[in-house]
Design brief:
The chain is of the alpha/beta class. It has 3 domains: 152 residues, Distorted Sandwich (Spo0b-associated Gtp-binding Protein, Chain: A), CATH 2.70.210.12; 172 residues, Rossmann fold, CATH 3.40.50.300; 55 residues, no CATH class. Helix content is 16%, strand content 23%. It contains 6 helices and 16 strands. Strand 10 and strand 11 form a beta hairpin. It starts with a strand and ends in a 26-residue tail after the last strand. 36% of the residues are buried. One of its GO terms (cellular component) is cytoplasm. Its main location: cytoplasm.
Length: 391
């Protein structure tokens, strides 16, 4: 079962209550207060786990609760801290707050990245903490603070090096099966693939690329016709798009017309999305009509065209060589990921300040209108979670 969109309820642990207690021992008539503090509640932390490919685990566990902190006890014994709850989600998961107009809390697009989604409540103070020179017998203690609770919408956007885009029954799944062990379902009817499937191809130089088989698009997909948005969001992160065309013209389709409409659908969904196309996979080149359509196609586009018969694996090796070279070049040109800073959940009305690397220096930026004095900031807070070896 593949699940790429789900609603979950998240509750961090409450802090434990402080204790009111006094030392009572023989020969110690006025031992004083010794009530311990309550323990902090556990937090809920989302982790982008490369070994997880779907949100299906959360479908059967939509209430996520972290452990509460323990209550304080006498003899200055503090309560146990609630254990943090780590929730594994696939890389590419977007987390939104439903009760805050679907505000995007975070985008876990980096493998192994993590964020504290709900902070555990702080434990209450015991009466020992209230003792002063004036109030030597405090009879008050604090209750623990409640942990944060949220109703979240999780949405998965598939991360792959290459995305196959085409109309239903163009042969995308057949091509993916011919180059990987993805096991994508193939049949002679449209919409055989109902969920994105990612195949992995390993090369002799010990590098690998991932190719996503995106379910077939239909006209009007940008308007959410035929589950359009459900399909299209899975190619938002893909830097290399491959148009897969049926050169046979099955069911009276024209491959040139298909190419034009595919470009239009991508542009209408997100401006500039069609610019990511790197090549055309001219599939089903097994009859004379296909050759005629190929000649027409070459006159109408500047994109690199690879004629193939995916079912027979004819011409597939040249395609893989081209994609491998392109993906590796893009990966080399990518800026290295800067050290991760502590992720902090943004409260409503708060200001988010981004710390960005600028050579050997760091710069502050924000999308919000605010005024502050940079010299008044405590930069030590920003570097709490940075490994010294990475700076």
């Amino acid at each position: 079962m593949f699940v790429d969109r789900i609603k979950v309820y998240v509750k961090a642990g409450n802090g434990g209550n402080g204790c009111i207690s006094f030392r009572r021992e023989k020969y110690v008539p006025k031992g004083g207060p010794n009530g311990g503090n309550g323990g902090d509640g556990g937090s809920v932390i989302f982790v982008a786990d490369p070994g997880t490919s779907s949100l299906v685990d959360l479908k059967f566990n939509q209430h996520i609760d972290a452990e509460h902190g323990g209550h304080g006890l006498g003899s200055d014994m503090h309560g146990n801290r609630g254990e943090d709850l780590y929730v594994k989600v696939p890389p590419g998961t977007v987390v939104m707050d439903i009760n805050n107009d679907n505000y995007q809390i975070c985008d876990l697009d980096e493998p192994e990245s993590e964020i504290v989604i709900a902070q555990g409540g702080k434990g209450g103070r015991g009466n020992r903490s209230f003792a002063t020179s004036i109030n030597r017998v405090p009879r008050q203690a604090e209750e623990g603070y409640p942990g944060e609770e949220l109703v979240l919408l999780l949405e998965l956007k598939t991360i792959a090096d290459v995305g196959l885009v085409g109309y239903p029954n163009a042969g995308k799944s057949t091509f993916l099966n011919s180059v990987s062990n993805s096991g994508a379902k193939t049949a002679s009817y449209p919409f055989t693939t109902l969920n994105p499937i990612v195949g992995t191809i390993d090369f002799p130089d010990f590098t690998r690329i991932t190719i996503a088989d995106i379910p077939g698009l239909v006209e009007g997909a940008h308007e959410n016709i035929g589950l359009g948005h459900h399909f299209l969001r899975h190619i938002e992160r893909t830097n290399n798009l491959v148009y897969v065309l049926d050169m046979n013209g099955t069911d009276g389709r024209d491959p040139l017309d298909d190419l034009v409409k595919l470009k239009e659908e991508l542009e209408l969904y997100e401006e500039g999305l069609s610019d990511r196309a790197c090549m055309i996979l001219a599939n089903k080149m097994d009859n004379p009509a296909s050759e005629e359509n190929l000649e027409r196609l070459r006159k109408e586009t500047d994109l690199t065209i690879f004629p193939v018969i995916a079912e027979l694996r004819d011409g597939v090796d040249e395609v893989l060589e081209f994609l491998h070279k392109r993906v590796m070049e893009l990966k080399k040109s990518k800026v290295k990921h800067v050290p991760k800073l502590k992720n902090i959940y943004r409260k409503e009305g708060a200001v988010v300040v981004d710390l960005e690397a600028d050579g050997d220096d760091f710069a502050l930026s924000s999308d919000d209108d605010f005024d502050f004095d940079v010299e008044d900031l405590d930069y030590d807070d920003f570097y709490d979670d940075i490994d010294e070896d990475e700076v």
